Amino acid sequence: MPRRRRMSYETNLRGETRVPMLRRVALLVGVVLACLISVARIAASGSDRPDGHAWRVGVSRVCSGALLFEGRHSIGTEQGAVAVARDIRASTARRLARVKALRPHPERPRLARQWLRVERRLSGLYASSYLGIWHAIARAHTGVERARLPRILERLLRRPDATRRRAQLLEGQLQVPDCTGGENTTPNSSVAFTAR
After folding, report:
1. pLDDT in tens, 81-121
2. How distant, in Å, are the alpha carbons of 69, 114, 117 from that of 111?
3. The model's pTM
4. Domain that holds residue 29
5. Are residues 73 and 168 in the same domain?
């Protein structure tokens, strides 16, 4: 019959029991492993994941400095106004297609999909508001119509506000810039003013 080895605990002069070295090492290894697992979980769910960071960098490259529309347009005519409205939608659509094609994926995919939808909707609102403003100005012929024009224009200018605020909230959460160009206040040389 094999002899069992009994673990002996030493008691010092103060009456404290000393745990044998093997048990202390096992306890220390267990604590270290628990800490490593906890840190790994936090890192995996946090915003410092390399793929999430790479996605944000890619989105910033695509969207930073975006222009509301990219082509040259004559804005003195209805055809020019329609062309600008189309270009507003198309410019944002091109950038958003490039964002969707990025190889690194966002760390918060549902939020990123929601942001893409809001950006697309915001682009459509900018386009329809622009065209609405052009039509409102073109149709104001009488004194009464011109007197109502400021209220009409203000309503059209404010139409995208709620969607813009939603986009800004999502951009803050995802740490990405505006992709519509609607936040860009840099003068655009792509507008050719022609009077007809």
Report:
1. 999 999 999 999 999 999 999 999 899 999 999 999 999 99
2. 26, 5, 10
3. 0.67
4. 10-45
5. yes
